[in-house]
Amino acid sequence: MKARACSLDGHRDGGDTAKESGTQMNPVNSADRWSVYPPSVNLESEFDIDWIRSQFDFVNTGRIVTNNAASTQAPLPILHLTREVLRDYENVHRGQSQASQSTTMRFELAYDTIAAWINAPSRRNIVTYRNTTEAHNAVMYSLMTEFRDGDNVVTTMLEHNSNYVPWYALTEEILPRFGRRVERRLARFDPVTGALDLHHLTSLVDERTKLVCCTGASNFLGTKPPLDIVRAIADASGYVQPTGERRSLMLVDAAQLVPSTYTDVQALDVDYLSFSFHKMLAPFGVGVLYGKEHLLDHSLPFLFGGDMIAEGQVSPDLVEYNELPWKYAAGTPNIVGVVQSAQTLRLMIDLTADPGEASFFRSERPIPAHVVRRSMERIGRHTHGLTARALDRLSAVPGITIYGPPIGVVRSPLVAFNVEGWNPLDLATELDSRGVEARAGCHCATLAHHSLGLDPPASCRLSFALYNSTDDVDRACAAVLDATGRDGGSVSRSLRL
Ligand code: PLP
Predict the structure, then answer these.
(1) 486 vs 306, which has greater pLDDT?
(2) Which of 53, 338, 386, 481 has the smallest set of CB atoms within 10 Å of its CB?
């Protein structure tokens, strides 16, 4: 692929800021000890990775950012765009000024972009919250009044706490106070491969299962459960919903799925799906809940107040709610964040497009599904290649245990591991001192860590994004080898278990 001449928004200044400030980390040198790597994995053929990296300011600091499953870095064009948005912005749906009108238009168009990204029928299916966690809580509060005594909710041991603790709270703390007894059931996973135990899941779902909650991709094991089979299991329950449907609802936590995989909510036939933009190149602050229109129409909102009511339709005896999706937008929303997030999606298309193709960033052009699919497939192949390389190299580290699917089996772009004799938190600190940003802990996948019997319930994790290069992977893996002293390097005894 040909190199590109200039940045996406024509700004040439931003990339030098960190260089000038002299922020230089201490990256390890690229390792060449694994010189034999399968030639079939030609990682960067679809991208001009140098050009992509030039769109990110952090690159100039020397940081090796390999904690992307937690949060990704924001590109410079979004920072420049933010300055412009802030220059003439106003509240949305709350003013007659030009600024208010244009901000409202930008904000509403952002919903169309988000809907297009996941192939939702329209903006009416999109609710924005602060993050994935809030989206799950929103589903929980919306459905709270619908659970009947004797119902159950089924989730899995693979879940992030944000898709478990709300169901724990509902069944253990909230509904019992209303005298209602609802059971919480947890499907197991295979401790060796990390695969969801579909037989166990099937055995847990019955005619009293109102909701099945499942991750789209585990943030610890990298497992991607077969959502079509989970859907079929939920379909077969025969649970009678208040809408008359006879099946269990299905909520997919797609916080780790949407950033690396093309996700089509209609093809998946999910009822609810959540994700956070801070894991896909946008700044912090916006999460999405997709919901089927009839469910959002029928359910109670999670938050009540201004803008979620129909214009003028509030009296002492009757309040009428706004049309979708604004019924779920109580109070002033994160207007700038929503605009930034949608524009980041558009930018991702441009970053992964062939040179010379028409731009989507800053435009109002509708985004066809095949364009999103191609962009995400390219990102997926790139991050998959990086992950395969990391797995290959890390598996050469003596005493390492890598969790999740074996090499060659589909996994999201992350590798969690432990090295014998090392506390993962100490190891992550050692990696940081070598300029490599990893994450250690339970990654909020506490159930899975306990289920594997890890003591402490923690692992060290490297995770990859669009802007990572093979050099990042090599440096990160070399740092693991170096830090654990398996490469003849010195080992700080105090850091060992
Ligand atoms: N679900 C998964 C699988 C995650 O990885 C995360 C964050 O790491 C979350 C949910 C929570 O996302 P947020 O912190 O944006 O609410």
Answers:
(1) 306
(2) 53
